[in-house]
Amino acid sequence: MNSIGRLFRVHIFGESHGQVVGITIDGCPAGIALMADDFTTDIERRKAGAAGTTPRKEEDMPEILSGVFNDTTTGAPITIIFRNNNTRSADYEALRDTPRPGHADFVLHHKFSGFNDYRGGGHSSGRLTLCLVAAGVVAKKILSGISIEASLTEADGNTDIEAAIAKAIEEQDSIGGVVSCTVKGLPVGLGEPFFDSAESVISHLVFSIPAIKGIEFGAGFAGTKMKGSEHNDAIIDAGGKTQTNHAGGINGGITNGNELTFRIAVKPTSSTPQAQQTWNNKTEQVESFAVKGRHDLCIALRVPVVAEAAAAIALADLLLLHKAYK
Amino acid sequence: MNSIGRLFRVHIFGESHGQVVGITIDGCPAGIALMADDFTTDIERRKAGAAGTTPRKEEDMPEILSGVFNDTTTGAPITIIFRNNNTRSADYEALRDTPRPGHADFVLHHKFSGFNDYRGGGHSSGRLTLCLVAAGVVAKKILSGISIEASLTEADGNTDIEAAIAKAIEEQDSIGGVVSCTVKGLPVGLGEPFFDSAESVISHLVFSIPAIKGIEFGAGFAGTKMKGSEHNDAIIDAGGKTQTNHAGGINGGITNGNELTFRIAVKPTSSTPQAQQTWNNKTEQVESFAVKGRHDLCIALRVPVVAEAAAAIALADLLLLHKAYK
Amino acid sequence: MNSIGRLFRVHIFGESHGQVVGITIDGCPAGIALMADDFTTDIERRKAGAAGTTPRKEEDMPEILSGVFNDTTTGAPITIIFRNNNTRSADYEALRDTPRPGHADFVLHHKFSGFNDYRGGGHSSGRLTLCLVAAGVVAKKILSGISIEASLTEADGNTDIEAAIAKAIEEQDSIGGVVSCTVKGLPVGLGEPFFDSAESVISHLVFSIPAIKGIEFGAGFAGTKMKGSEHNDAIIDAGGKTQTNHAGGINGGITNGNELTFRIAVKPTSSTPQAQQTWNNKTEQVESFAVKGRHDLCIALRVPVVAEAAAAIALADLLLLHKAYK
Amino acid sequence: MNSIGRLFRVHIFGESHGQVVGITIDGCPAGIALMADDFTTDIERRKAGAAGTTPRKEEDMPEILSGVFNDTTTGAPITIIFRNNNTRSADYEALRDTPRPGHADFVLHHKFSGFNDYRGGGHSSGRLTLCLVAAGVVAKKILSGISIEASLTEADGNTDIEAAIAKAIEEQDSIGGVVSCTVKGLPVGLGEPFFDSAESVISHLVFSIPAIKGIEFGAGFAGTKMKGSEHNDAIIDAGGKTQTNHAGGINGGITNGNELTFRIAVKPTSSTPQAQQTWNNKTEQVESFAVKGRHDLCIALRVPVVAEAAAAIALADLLLLHKAYK
Questions:
Q1: CA distance A316 to A78
Q2: What is the rounded average pLDDT of the residues D149-174?
Q3: Which of A257, C99, C181, D298 has its CA 20 to 30 A from that of D134?
Q4: What residues in B contact C30, CB-CB < 8 Å?
Q5: pLDDT at A180
Q6: Residue B306 contacts residue B178 (beta carbons within 8 Å)
Q7: How far apart are CA C102 and CA D234, in angstroms?
């Protein structure tokens, strides 16, 4: 349930307001240089602090508990934890009777019979994406020679990201966005026949990221308006290079050696400063309420590095599978 | 690789032009009435023959080889096969040197070192969706009280499906479409924390269907242009009913008891009557060629029942998982 | 449930008195020569007919339904079925009220709420070992350069197998035995850390064979009576060759390059001609009854080739995993 | 690789001389009372200190990092770590060139290309059984009403355990033993058809415990010397109670409601004070050497609680699977 992958496997754990969030990475090859510093860049990219992100200060220093010896992976499982230092649980006490719209409060309460750690989303908090990012750093090392780059290409339907953020701050309402990701340097042949297509495995991971509601590969939904003669990518050399790339680098679920591209839809942050309606379990009626606390107005700003991590985890697994058959 | 599911598990096999295509369904509860007739409706819905679909005649009679005794499931694996009667392998011989654009010919040849059954797409053929449909029939029986309905809501970007098909026939070029699916009657709580979110599991299965290049849940990509105060669905009763349904019935990866909705992007059929460019491995240059044989101009017409099956397989698995914890 | 393996995966299906028994082998590399004749030797070795085995005539011709093209594996799942021709279901009708001691009748009835195919053991019949043997033939091809040989080394506690069989026939009572298996030519390094030790994976498969009640590797139970200085195998060259082999070729769950050896305990055939006591669900009292039908007095005679298959399936999987990390 | 289980899943990590050893338990139902004190009894049972065990002092205090809120399981993954305080890595430096006979030094070095943490066995150390014990405590809570009891019933082939230990201390050589385990109160029906038989799942886990070289269920190897009429357990009531229990509570891989019994063979501790022969990679010849450091002369003394844990983990998983189908 909290695991994914067939050879490169990750197991996630922890809660937003518990002691730690963490991840165990199993199936990482031995002999890869790895130290805490390697995580800095990607963790910084995910951090809050910019306009439109939460003012919470998260230290986010990885502690590598196992699987690394002399700054090198050993082949044993790598467990990495992040302490939770800066939490204000009291902010959440008042919300127990009023499940926040857009959040998982209501479904978690029902699924776990009220025993879930409700503070700050608990195990379902966006804070756990920090663990995905950490696993992504390791995955990227396996994908040597392959680059993965994601960025926020739309906010609130607008390509001028800064203006959209400024407007959101002015209007004090949260906004969504679109993150685009490109992977270069992949070999031909990643992706398994039928159920573990490259799209299947990547989308499975991407939809694990909170707030994601859509994904499309290559031309995606726009491709449904093309003719076949237009959408098909002409193959122009023996290595499979194509003239266009409407397929997003994947045919029949298998990478074709061209750039793998996908776009993901990030819904507006559920925690908005605006007043909203929800059911109050105590008064047994619909009531207006406002989410307090420090939240991102545009969570999509922090998603690119997480999307890269999701793609990297998926592709590292497919690459190791590929190697088993070569 | 050719399996999916944790409790309700399916294993697919077969090739388009081999003896059979088939599927084994493991983890189906004992005591469910099941006979060949149960498959008729959904298999007919998938069949070719309408305008815009291939004139190939596929008999598609299921043979239940195991797991059913006295017209009732036994709890043992259910294997269902479909014979391939109406194949013209010769049509494909000529294509070995010219990988068809948009198809998996090139990647399969590389992934399997040239040993793949290249006839009609082999194991990657759309014909295998017949097996998904069969598994979907069984899954739907497990989902008693839950309805799953999908339909083609756009063809070539147009909501007038008939007109779009007529135009495609006239222009002799293939087209794509959008299939919309709605699931009613789901309990609160399906979907596992983090990696096996309802969206993850459904998308994993949906991207196993050939020609799918995008999926969105609820408001999806359109939702990225909404404000949080607009996108959030107000909860209006103790059972979790919401006023709007931008979340598509899923919060935090878990079903919330409202209608689960998703839309999928079906690319235009790769086999188009139009001339196309591809690499010829013999002449070692780019050449023009045309796909022969009988093909669907709008494969999207046949996708709805397959999408229902994918959703049913995913949800039957999540429902059985749910039962283990109740 | 009816599947095993991580890369080399097998899915078993079918019932003793249904239409077929069969197996799907997923994850077999492409490019391996495979035809029906390859199965003959091992299937013959498993066959009934010798003294102490059932006089039932089983044709046991494999039909390869998928995954093989031009007598070569394609990389797609290989499904092999065996028709059930020679069954007398009526023999079993009378037994529905009297669960046979030693058999799974009682537990299957309860586990599957009475819906199980009770004829001849149904899906739990020893006939399904035919499918294991078929998968073993494929696995052995992957293990090129590695030999696996098993034989019956004890029957009824006696190393003179023929005399023990003759006595069982004379006394008209079933007997058990011990099967010993040796694998030569394995590389150093098969077996995964902790849970997927070579012993774990092999024992998991071996205990899937009906009638197996024990397994020991190397010196096994006898080794518990040795001193450490005696049991430890001195390493005598740089390749890891050891002077003795009390470890059975496995240290810390990982193959050490020496012969891998194990012994398995096969209980006496549950179906014995002798009268036995069991509960009669109709009369609601303990009653005497005798099993009719044609049965093996010493099922252990047919186990060696099945044990080889179990070992081969386990080791082929571990070998492919090993390759992914080299 | 370092994970096991289908619903009740455990993921193990850590090294003997690293920072921690730990385990993540996924799939534990919400609402179970759990606090650090619950682990005390079983952890004490595993501890060193008695005659025949190592004089190393291990504090072994569990730190529950996640998955527990208000002393109750939440349904999220439970991660438990144990700090390694009392390690003397220098003891092991000298051994790098001389792989210890009976140990995994040689195979780990080859499998992980020399990158493994070689100190004290690293990730393959017996210290990781502490994590199994912790997971066993949680598993036992799920198995409410079911008792699991294991004890050392033979040491050095002798049922007088104390005398055998005294002799080993006097002779300064390590010894092995046999651990017997009995599970009472199991329902009918645990164990899955074919590959996940109760014996398969239990043996898979038991062979994960270092030093285990054999397992037998019920009469086991002794049963191979019985006649069928003697071995078969007569069923004497409608609930499946049997007069004898040679099957060890399992028929056809499925629990039959009687006591589940198994015995496991524990080899003599590989680290013996006696001088031994091994290959020296530096001098490139076989040399005599003696293992230094503090070690158990009879590791089997510490195995019973670990065997209980292995059985509990296996049975908790099968019980949850069972519930999904009821």
A1: 15
A2: 96
A3: D298
A4: 112-113, 115-116
A5: 98
A6: no
A7: 8
**8 A C-beta contact, residue B286 and residue B109:** no
- How large is the greatest C-alpha to C-alpha distance in chain D, in angstroms? 69
* Euclidean distance between CA atoms D110 and D89, whole angstroms: 21
> From the list B75, B193, B321, which residue is nearest D76 (CB)?
B193
Residues in B lying within 8 Å of D, measured between beta carbons? 6-7, 29-30, 75-76, 193, 320-321, 323-325
pLDDT above 90 as % of chain D: 87
The number of angstroms, rounded, from the C-alpha of C56 to the middle of its chain's C-alpha atoms is 20
The residue in chain D having the minimum alpha-carbon distance to the alpha carbon of residue B320 is: D324
Which chain C positions have a beta carbon within 8 Å of D320's beta carbon?
none
Tens digit of pLDDT at every position of chain B (326 positions): 899 999 999 999 999 999 999 999 999 999 999 999 999 999 999 986 677 777 665 578 999 999 999 999 999 999 999 999 866 666 677 777 899 999 999 999 999 999 999 998 899 999 999 999 999 999 999 999 999 999 999 999 999 999 999 999 999 999 999 999 999 999 999 999 899 999 999 999 999 999 999 999 999 999 999 999 999 999 999 999 999 999 999 999 999 999 999 999 999 999 999 999 999 999 999 999 887 777 889 999 999 999 999 999 999 999 999 999 98
Q: How far apart are CA D128 and CA D123, in angstroms?
A: 7
Cβ–Cβ gap A252/B108 under 8 Å: yes
For C261-298, letters b (16+ CB in 10 Å) and e give bbbbbbbbbbbbbeebbbbbeeeeeeeebebeeebbbb
Which residues in chain D have their CB less than 8 angstroms from residue C173's CB? 227-229
pLDDT beyond 60 at C1 = yes
**Parallel, antiparallel or unpaired: strands B260-266 and B212-217:** antiparallel
Contact D22 A78 (CB under 8 A): no
Tell whether ipTM is more than 0.90: yes
Number of separate domains in chain C: 1
Q: Which domain holds residue D191?
A: 3-325
- Which site among C65, C68, C71, C72 would you substitute to test the B interface, given the most B Cβ atoms closer than 10 Å to its Cβ? C65
Mutation target for D interface from C204, C260, C286: give the one with most D CBs within 10 A. Answer: C204
Query: Do the beta carbons of residue C70 and residue B118 sit within 8 Å?
Result: no
pLDDT value at position C44? 93
Where helices occur in C210-302 by DSSP H, the ranges are 220-223, 228-231
From D194, which residue of chain B is nearest by alpha-carbon distance?
A: B76
pLDDT digits (tens, 9 = 90+) for D214-225: 999 999 999 999
Q: Residue A279: how many CA atoms within 13 Å on its side-chain side?
A: 15
Minimum CA–CA partner of A280 in chain B: B238
Amino acid at A204: H
For residue A89, pLDDT over 80 is answered with no
Give Dmax (Cα) for chain C: 69
CB D8 within 8 A of CB D25: yes
CA distance D219 to A189: 51
CATH number, domain of B25, equals 3.60.150.10
Q: Looking at beta carbons, which residues of chain C come within 8 Å of D194?
A: 1-2, 12, 123-124, 128, 208
Locus of tokens 């080399």: C8
SS3 readout for B214-229:
EEEECCHHHHHHCEHH
Q: Identify the closest residue of chain D to C233 by CA–CA distance.
A: D101
Q: Which DSSP symbol is given to D179?
A: E
Contacts of A317 in chain D (CB under 8 A): none
- State how far Cα D311 lies from the chain centre: 9
d(CA D25, CA A238): 49
The residue of chain B with its CA nearest to that of C33 is: B115
- Tell if the pTM clears 0.90, that is, is over it: yes
d(CA A190, CA B108): 10
